[in-house]
Structures are given as C-alpha cells and as structure tokens.
Specification:
Blueprint: E1 4-10, H1 13-25, E2 30-34, E3 50-55, H2 59-71
Antiparallel strand pairs: 1-3, 2-3
C-alpha cells in the first residue's frame, strides 16, 4: 500500500460512507480500512478506527473535494 495516502480518519461509519461516495463520484478510487468488528458496535481504541485511503496521485484532488464538501463552494469563486 505504498502508493496510497490516508485522506480521512474517523470513528463514524456514516461519515466514512459519505466521504467515500463523494470521492468515488469524482472518479477517485478509495480504499476503506476499518478495524470495526461488524456484530459489535464498539468504538474502543483501535477497534473503532476507519481510515479512507486514496492513491498518492489523487490526494490533492481528494483534499479539494473534501474541502468543498465541508465549506460549500470554492473560496476562489467568492471574490
């Protein structure tokens, strides 16, 4: 996984799904690395970690997509 970079770290399944769907809608390949144990909704320490990874070459684009999601339209368009 040397060619992959972490774009999101969360304990929230819903947040991870939303961000994954958003990035994939922009044709950015995403790998979800979850330490959750499905039958047990536990978030103790590492057991609840969810990490989203994107390819290094997509990292800048992915960060921009997440930034736009969090803050609405691009800052450049405000002026």
């Amino acid at each position: 996984m040397d060619n992959w970079e972490e774009i999101l770290f969360t304990y929230d399944d819903i947040e991870a799904e939303i961000v994954r769907d958003l990035l994939e809608s922009e044709h950015i390949q995403v790998v979800v690395n979850s330490m959750k144990v499905s039958p047990y909704p536990v978030s103790i320490g590492r057991m609840g970690e969810i990490k989203l990874l994107v390819r290094k070459e997509d990292l800048e684009k992915a960060e921009k997509v997440i930034q736009i999601m969090k803050h609405g339209k691009e800052q450049d368009n405000d002026s």
